Amino acid sequence: MIEDLAKNLVNLKREFAKIHDGTSQIQEVIPISNSELFPIEQQDLKLLHQFAAKNPIYYRSYEKTIGDTPCNVYEGDINKYWLNSIKYGSSHAPFSPTWIMSAYVSALFAKELGYQEIIDIGSGDGRIAFCAKVLDLESYSIEIDDMLVDLQKLLTPTLDFHPYCSDAIVFDYSSLNLSHPVFFIGGLAQMGGIALASNILEKIDSISKLKKNIGWVFAGTYSQKYQPDSKNEAGWGTLIEKNNLQSIQTLLLPTVWTFHEPDETPYIFAQTI
User: Fold this and answer.
1) Domain around 41
2) Alpha helices, H only, 26-158
3) Which helix (DSSP H) or strand (DSSP E) does residue 35 occupy?
4) Which residues does residue 27 pair with via DSSP β-bridges, in sequence order?
5) Burial of 203 (0-12, 13-18, 19+ CB in 10 A)
6) What is the CATH number of the domain that holds 181?
């Protein structure tokens, strides 16, 4: 089901990209109702729309049928958040979000794999942590940028996904009392993601009770403008091998930065061996 849902979302994005004639900096779509292509709980879709409607990133929305799927289109601008996010010396990637629907599909797959908590590292506006909460998982959002955390707090009255304004490298993860967590690492491997992930892996390895119960999700790229990894895995292969992780599956999903690209963003799901 997850693979079909991801493929249907990719097809929806590609159809939308063909017909979209707006000039907004970012744009994405969320189906209005569940359907054969998107068999999602209606209450879940309602919450995803609430997240977008209350999010100050988006300044315009409208209904549009894309293929056979009635959707809401959300258009917005992330410039001020992007600029603010690059001012931190320890920030490993500027803010550029995945699609809300992609965040939902990723969180849904994490739930299907049996994880009980999602920790979103470099969480931006908190959409992955929010989607985890939609799916009744416990979630935590770790973001160094105070402006983005303030944005997240505007959204917590809908669902509290526990945003923390902190450098993820120094955050005390043992304080969360995690049992079976999966960590989503924000940032491409070639844009500081390796350094961030390496530090988090080392920190989590020091929590003895978690050594065999941890999942990892890395956002990769197949773009030729980035140096490839000799071990593949969309830039993450060397880190995965070095840290004795095992790849589970890769989901291709739309993101803001691939809207005009032929390839989607690969999300690599891995686990401790």
Assistant:
1) 2-272
2) 42-54, 79-85, 100-112, 127-134, 146-155
3) none
4) 75
5) middle
6) 3.40.50.150
* Residue 108 vs residues 77, 119, 244: alpha-carbon distances, Å: 27, 14, 25
Output b/e per residue, 224-242; b: 16+ Cβ within 10 A: eeeeebeeebbbbbebbee
Question: Which amino acid does the sequence have at 118?
Answer: I
Per residue in 213-270, pLDDT (tens digit) is: 799 999 988 877 767 766 788 889 899 999 999 999 999 999 988 888 888 999 999 9
| C-alpha to C-alpha distance for 46 and 67, rounded to whole angstroms | 21
State the total domains in the chain: 1
Q: Which of 133, 138, 120 is nearest to 185 (CA)?
A: 120
Query: Are the C-beta atoms of residues 231 and 199 closer than 8 Å to each other?
Result: no
Give the list of residues 6+ apart from residue 15 with CB closer than 8 angstroms, or none. Answer: 66, 67
Integer Cα distance of 48 and 30 in angstroms:
8
Looking at per-residue pLDDT, the higher value among 202 and 85 belongs to 202
Nearest to 191 by CA among 235, 238, 245: 235
Rounded to the nearest 10 degrees, what angle do helices 42-54 and 100-112 cross at?
A: 140
Q: What is the DSSP string of 153-170?
A: HHHTTT----EEES-TTT
Could you give phi then psi for residue 222, rounded to 5 degrees? -105, 5
Q: Is the pTM of this model over 0.90?
A: yes
What residues pair up with 207 in beta bridges, in sequence order?
none
